[in-house]
Structure to design on (480 residues):
């Protein structure tokens, strides 16, 4: 009871001090705006919030081409190669006849993801090319008609489920292979009828996925920026309602549908559409104000902009250090960080990605306590790294060790006070030096790192806190 009371006071103090920059609401009457104001509070979404780290996998027949065709290099994202003029559609549309990933081992992938520390994964069931990695009964363009024949999606779902990693299904609304598909609403009656068929086809595939893979926790939509899709506010709203009724607890991000005014992610009143904000692609918020108090995830590539397998990565390739920084930064602002992998046409995870998974896993093995189930602290960001928090522990993940070895911490008046500090790895204690107050009357502390401490990796200091004496008065006032 005492602990709960302490947490309530702590959270309210922190939230009060910092304040979330909520987007100002207007009150336009909407038929197809958001269905919910504020965050979901159910167990499924609570779990989603605790994940911290996820894995994305882009895998399809584009992996066979690997960003090259007829000896020419495709400079775009490998999974978009069909849209390149140097590769005739017909060549691409026949690639599936060669798709035979003999090296594919779903259990190996899942074990690697588990080692990396991923708590959830998102798999491309169908990318913009329309190729389905499950044997959909609504099209022939599926895994069933490749030399491999078996249901890849089932193998993946089963293997990740077995490792305790939650699976989410990526689904592209863009489908270059489907006859009736259009990116903008068609003009002729015949084309309109074709688009109506496409809508039903899309609905059928989604219901099929939710029915056949019932352990999947949610859907991750893409390609919903198409004008044609945006203009289907009623259809998409009805479809969302149908999917949620079929699978209570289902998690769907803000990319699925637009309101009747064509507003995506946030409806015309500025309210989030869907269960979390899904707009952070290869980009991270700068500060907590940018996320408006919403749940969110960031999806990130290791090279610059390659999601599917490209055999020749050019440009800057992120290191595990960069990616751990992004992971901690995401969690410090209440987000999840999802790292993309693009296996090759045979089903191998490329060595560069395996190395990253290994290095991130090594780091997580020691430091994951600062990630899983952690959230934003409300403390002022400092140059040495990031704060995350769980219960009465604040974690200081240090990426940029100060030259004087002092980790500066500012604690708002009337809140909490640090009682103990130690290295997460090894528990060795470190001194907390009280450095007085600043003009805003915030308490200043320096956590003194031992000068002889050497770490080749970002490291974590745990700061245990308790409510300060001033809180007692606040609590007393609250009782009257
Ligand atoms: O066009 C796709 C791209 O290929 C990739 O799938 C990413 C992943 O978030 N989504 C789209 C671009 O937003």
């Amino acid at each position: 009871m005492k602990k709960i009371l302490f947490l309530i006071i702590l959270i309210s103090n922190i939230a009060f001090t910092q304040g979330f920059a909520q987007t100002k609401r207007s009150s336009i009457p909407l038929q197809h705006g958001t269905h919910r104001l504020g965050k979901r509070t159910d167990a499924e979404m609570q779990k989603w919030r605790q994940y911290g780290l996820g894995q994305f996998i882009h895998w399809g027949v584009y992996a066979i081409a690997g960003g090259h065709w007829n000896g020419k290099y495709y400079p775009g994202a490998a999974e978009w190669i069909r849209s390149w003029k140097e590769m005739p559609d017909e060549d691409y549309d026949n690639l599936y006849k060669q798709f035979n990933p003999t090296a594919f081992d779903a259990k190996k992938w899942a074990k690697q993801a588990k080692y990396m520390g991923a708590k959830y994964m998102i798999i491309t069931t169908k990318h913009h090319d329309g190729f389905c990695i499950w044997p959909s009964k609504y099209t022939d363009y599926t895994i069933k008609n490749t030399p491999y024949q078996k249901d890849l999606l089932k193998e993946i779902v089963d293997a990740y489920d077995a490792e305790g990693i939650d699976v989410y299904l990526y689904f592209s609304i863009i489908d270059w292979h489907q006859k009736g598909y259009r990116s903008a609403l068609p003009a002729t009656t015949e084309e309109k009828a074709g688009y109506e068929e496409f809508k039903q086809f899309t609905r059928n595939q989604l219901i099929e996925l939710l029915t056949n893979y019932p352990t999947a926790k949610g859907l991750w939509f893409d390609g919903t920026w198409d004008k044609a899709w945006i203009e289907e506010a009623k259809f998409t709203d009805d479809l969302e309602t149908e999917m949620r009724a079929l699978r209570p607890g289902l998690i769907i991000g803000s990319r699925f549908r637009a309101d009747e005014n064509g507003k995506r992610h946030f409806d015309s009143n500025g309210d989030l559409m869907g269960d979390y904000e899904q707009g952070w692609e290869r980009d991270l918020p700068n500060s907590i104000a940018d996320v408006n108090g919403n749940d969110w995830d960031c999806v990130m590539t290791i090279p610059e902009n390659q999601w599917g397998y490209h055999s020749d990565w050019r440009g800057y390739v992120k290191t595990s250090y960069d990616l751990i920084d992004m992971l901690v930064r995401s969690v410090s602002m209440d987000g999840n960080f999802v790292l993309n992998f693009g296996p090759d046409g045979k089903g191998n995870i490329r060595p560069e990605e395996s190395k990253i998974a290994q290095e991130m896993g090594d780091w997580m093995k020691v430091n994951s306590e600062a990630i899983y189930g952690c959230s934003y602290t409300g403390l002022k960001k400092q140059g040495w790294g990031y704060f995350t928090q769980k219960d009465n522990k604040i974690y200081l993940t240090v990426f940029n060790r100060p030259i004087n070895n002092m980790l500066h911490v500012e604690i708002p008046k009337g809140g909490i006070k640090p009682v103990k500090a130690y290295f997460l790895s090894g528990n060795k204690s470190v001194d907390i030096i009280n450095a007085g107050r600043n003009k805003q009357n915030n308490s200043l502390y320096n956590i003194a790192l031992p000068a002889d401490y050497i770490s080749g990796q970002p490291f974590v200091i745990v700061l245990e806190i308790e409510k300060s004496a001033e809180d007692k008065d606040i609590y007393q006032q609250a009782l009257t």
